[in-house]
Amino acid sequence: MKPEVYISDLASYVGQVVTLRGWLYNKRSSGKVKFLILRDGSGYLQCVVFKGNVSEDKFSLAETFGQEASFEVTGKIKVEPRAVGGYEMDVTDVNLISNSVDFPITPKEHGIEFLIDNRHLWLRSKRQVAIMKIRHRIVKAIRDFFDQKGFVLFDPPIITPNACEGTSTLFEFDYFDLGKAYLTQSGQLYAEAGAMAFGKVYTFGPTFRAEKSKTRRHLTEFWMVEPEMAFYNLDDDMDLAEEFLEYIVQSVLNDKKEELIVLERDLTKLEC
Known about the structure:
The protein is of the alpha+beta class. The protein has 7 helices and 11 strands. It folds into 2 domains: 7-98, CATH 2.40.50.140; 112-263, Bira Bifunctional Protein, Domain 2 (BirA Bifunctional Protein, domain 2). Helix 4 (126-148) packs across helix 6 (234-255).
């Protein structure tokens, strides 16, 4: 059954009893009270389990939860500025959905190679969640910007018969019995044709470079946005680029400031 309430909704549920489902981010105990930090993808919530508010069995059950165990918790929501997320739950019931044993990514520091090898689990960490949410907002802002400017999204193929730049950096493979084909370097050639039909188009999708490198400036796969406009001169191009960057930055600042703080970014240089 899908959740009816998420942690991000709790401002509307102060003083009410709700049921949440998620995963155990962290926990600690102090005598007759246990603090379970629940994460559900939308946020984090401190769930306070007092021994007198739940049965002995449920209190003991909460002690068995491993890091990243999935569980369901019910209780009353209250404002608590000192708690993560600014809210807290006084728990009246807790149920284990599935326990987790020996979760490899503990709160201690880990090396980058270890984290990359466990990328599917690393995604659950606060920093990675913040990065992905910011990326999601950037993608939405890109599409919103061009939509508002009257551009048409023009999707080029990922498998192409030719290069638009240099053949030395292409991923090449056999395309059945028809000869060679390549993973796209750019949607530029298709976008130029589209601009002649629609006036203003943009492509936005994965592109590939067969360059063996681990630097941030030479990724083998990345997403690229490319607008093409008929009758624009250089000044028009520069104006569009400036407006585009400003729109993206302000969109992220307005909607994802909390995530930027998690990443310890200096926002003063970006705020108007």
